[in-house]
Amino acid sequence: MGSSKGFTIVEQGHAVNMIDAVSAGTALTSSSILLENWGHASIILSHGAGSATTVTVFDSASAAASGASMAFNYATEATAAGDTMEAALTTAGTGGVSLVTAEGSFMVIEIDADELRDGYPWVLIRTSATGANLISAVAVLSGGRYQKDITATAIA
Fold first, then answer.
1. Using one digit for the tens of pLDDT, what is the confidence trace for 86-127?
2. d(CA 41, CA 102)
3. Which of 31, 42, 122, 137 is the most exposed place for a label (fewest CB within 10 A)?
């Protein structure tokens, strides 16, 4: 019987802090991440407490966050258990998806680099909140084209 193990993010992937943990009552725009050297991004957006917020994903030609919203696959967790994700990924349209108001809820967004439009290798997320929210977002990049002990930055 063979062994199965995952991968070590700092050696075989890359972690990017897209939105610092913040209390915000306004819309937020994340840092842009460059996927040209990565095959996949898993973005984990955590919602500590507050009002519902709509999450949208954008691809962009540059880090300037000037692209168009895109459809994306996601799953959410909003139970008291803290790790009970939806049974399957759901596709959100270009208008995004609402993240519930439950304290401790989170969303995992899965993006393959080949889902981006040609010439638009940057990805960012936006939230639009109507009240105070505690939000953070971290991306884990995988499927790197160039593996090194320390991977190059993927943000502008």
1. 768 889 999 999 887 767 788 899 999 999 999 999 999 998
2. 25
3. 42
Residue 130: inside a domain: yes
User: Does a structural domain hold residue 22?
Assistant: yes
> Between the CA of residue 47 and those of 26, 85, 94, 117, what are the distances in Å?
14, 15, 21, 29
Pseudo-torsion of CA 156, 124, 22, 131, nearest 10°? 150
Count of domains forming the chain: 1
Per-residue pLDDT tens over the stretch 55-88: 999 999 988 877 789 999 999 887 766 777 776 8
For the chain, what percent of residues have pLDDT higher than 90?
42
pLDDT of residue 43: 96
> How many distinct helices (H) and strands (E) make up the chain?
1, 12
The CATH number that applies at residue 83 is 2.60.120
Domain extent for 39: 11-142
Residue 99 lies in a domain: yes
pTM: 0.87
At 143, the amino acid letter reads G
Establish if 150 belongs to a structural domain: no
